[in-house]
Design a protein that fits this description.
Layout lengths: L15 H15 L4 E6 L4 H9 L3 E7 L5 E8 L10
Antiparallel strand pairs: 1-3, 2-3
């Protein structure tokens, strides 16, 4: 699991978070991960734009590990495998 949680306000708007998120996506795909799950506060639209630009799709609304509201997005990196027969 990787958390990209905060960018210094002076550095915002320079593509740093997008670059970091893209690197995480590529590394996860290279390691064989099936899916990336990302969360952000619904009122913070910038992370939502980054997730959309990475190809993620809004999945649900929920709460984060601190009990605060969050928007959940997912990105399948490979097709799900069919269950093997018994």
């Amino acid at each position: 699991m990787a958390d990209l949680v905060w960018i210094d306000p002076a550095a915002r708007g320079q593509g740093i978070a997008t670059e970091a998120a893209t690197a995480v996506r590529e590394e996860a795909a290279g390691l064989g991960a099936a899916t990336i799950v990302a969360r952000h506060h619904p009122a913070n639209v910038a992370p939502g734009r980054i997730m959309t630009n990475l190809g993620m799709h809004r999945h649900d609304d929920g709460t984060n590990r601190y009990g605060r509201p969050c928007r959940i997005s997912i990105l399948p990196l490979r097709p799900p495998q069919a269950d093997s027969p018994d």
